[in-house]
Amino acid sequence: MLTWKDVIHFSTAGNPEPDRRVEKSDAEWQELLTPAQFRITRKKGTEAPHSGALCSSYEAGKYACACCETPLFDSTIKFDSGTGWPSFTQPITQNAIKYEKDHSYGMIRVEVMCNTCDAHLGHVFPDGPPPSGLRYCINSESLELLKTTTPNEQ
């Protein structure tokens, strides 16, 4: 289980190696993504609180990167943080997420990105629920929900 100490270590000493890398030009990403997805994931934008389609969704499944489809979070660790963005306590694997210090807007935060394609996802904070105490605050536009189907739903 990752902790705030691990997050700070990765943001200062380097991130774990991803399983694979996906690299495309801005023009290639623009062909694949909606304008909102491109602005948020490739230009480090954000969506308005409570506006994202995945904010209040708690369907079973995996949340994957909207750019490269790498699984990032599991629905079992999603929680309602009251912030207006989908929130998670842990990534699906330790090397799914990339961490960088963010000094924008006059504050110090830790930006989280897809470790496979460098898509901006959001930020992580040390004010989440136990046991990790982490809150990954993620833009809906950065994610795609890969729903889990049961045998009766086929």
Please characterize this protein's 3D structure.
It contains three helices and nine strands. By secondary structure, the protein is of the alpha+beta class. The strands form two sheets. Strands 3-4-8-7-6-5 form a six-stranded antiparallel β-sheet. The chain has a three-stranded antiparallel β-sheet with strand order 2-1-9, with no helix packed on it.
Topology:
Layout: H1 4-13, H2 26-32, H3 35-42, E1 61-65, E2 71-74, E3 78-79, E4 87-88, E5 97-102, E6 109-114, E7 120-125, E8 135-138, E9 143-147
Antiparallel strand pairs: 1-2, 1-9, 3-4, 4-8, 5-6, 6-7, 7-8
Annotated CATH architecture: Beta Complex
CATH homologous superfamily name? Peptide methionine sulfoxide reductase
CATH class: Mainly Beta
Please count the helical segments.
Answer: 3
Order of helices and strands: HHHEEEEEEEEE
Question: What's the overall average pLDDT, rounded?
Answer: 94
Any low-confidence stretches, pLDDT <50, length ≥5? none
Helix percent band? 10-25%
Biggest sheet features: 6 strands, antiparallel
Kindly report the spatial arrangement of strands forming the biggest sheet: 3-4-8-7-6-5
CATH topology: Metal Binding Protein, Guanine Nucleotide Exchange Factor, Chain A
Structure class: alpha+beta
Q: How many distinct beta strands?
A: 9
Beta-strand content: 25-35%
Shape: globular
